[in-house]
Specification:
It is built from eleven helices and nine strands. By secondary structure, the protein is α/β, with parallel strands linked by helices. The longest helix is centred in the middle third of the chain and has 20 residues.
Length: 287
């Protein structure tokens, strides 16, 4: 065997097999998370530790309601309420798919019964009634269950003299429930008025996105209104507004920062600072 042949044989013996594309995808899946704001890749564990906020550009990604509760509430203090309340299909509504099928698929994909979780607990030792919406369940749309759970939570907060915070994330009213969905705007607003009359504090925290009937009701009724950086907040999309008004609108006019400059939001608060900010507000109001 020549020296050249020996080297070729040795090369084949020690050469590692090249991973196929499918193998590469399996290795990389879930390991890295790409920021939608600037495109930076983050090690997923670091991304979770940083509460899904980009360390490069400060972009705040949407988080689920369970993650939000873990970020906010003291360990072992969370008491969920009305966990088994589920949506029905009172109108037998069908668009591209039956509404009942949409509900079933959302239940399976999210593990939630609807687009909000409610309960009571403590934030850095302070008692708080809390509702957190989840955009992953049918776009966080407000149907009968969302309105009912928020109204019940508000009534419990009134009875127990508790401060209330609602974290909004919604595409608006749930069209598959028609006027029953629209009724939730009045129901939740009435419950909040009774809470206000009892001289209890309500803090609205607007996260991305907060739109439609949620904006037109409890999202804008807070005694104090907070928002996360970059959150889109409005009633309807900019294209529809421009078509209605027949004029060009300012760039970023539906962002949390723009709304704070124009008096619709009291403070834009980074996610990591929300617990301390809530506690400070509670202390200032005598809780």
């Amino acid at each position: 065997m020549s020296l050249l042949d020996w080297f070729e044989t040795r090369k084949k013996e020690v050469q590692s097999p090249v991973p196929q594309p499918q193998q590469q995808r399996e290795i990389a899946e879930g390991l890295w998370t790409k920021c939608r704001g600037c495109g930076t890749l983050h090690y997923t564990k670091d991304w979770e530790i940083n509460q899904q906020v980009c360390s490069s550009c400060g972009y705040h990604a949407m988080v689920g309601c369970r993650q939000r509760i873990e970020q906010l509430m003291d360990p072992d203090t969370w008491e969920p309420l009305d966990e088994l309340v589920c949506s029905l299909d009172p109108l037998q509504f069908t668009d591209l798919r039956p509404y009942s099928e949409r509900i079933r698929k959302s239940l399976q994909s999210t593990g939630l019964t609807d687009a909000v979780l409610t309960g009571v607990g403590r934030v850095l030792g302070k008692p708080l009634a809390l509702a957190v919406m989840d955009f992953s369940f049918m776009g966080g749309s407000m149907g009968s269950v969302v309105g009912e759970k928020i109204a019940r939570l508000t009534e419990i907060a009134t009875q127990r003299s508790l401060p209330l915070a609602i974290f909004t994330a919604s595409g608006g009213a749930r069209m598959q429930e028609g006027v029953l969905s629209l009724m939730q705007m009045a129901k939740t607003s009435a419950a909040l008025e009774r809470h206000r009359s009892a001289r209890q504090l309500y803090i609205a925290v607007l996260t991305h996105p907060t739109t439609g009937g949620v904006t037109a009701s409890y999202a804008m009724l807070g005694d104090v209104t907070l928002a996360e950086p970059g959150a889109m907040i409005g009633f309807t999309g900019p294209r529809i507004i421009e078509q209605t008004l027949k004029q060009k609108l300012p760039e970023g006019f539906q962002t949390a920062e723009y709304l704070m400059e124009h008096g619709f939001v009291d403070m834009v608060v980074q996610r990591a600072k929300l617990p301390a900010t809530l506690v400070r507000l509670l202390s200032l109001h005598g809780y």
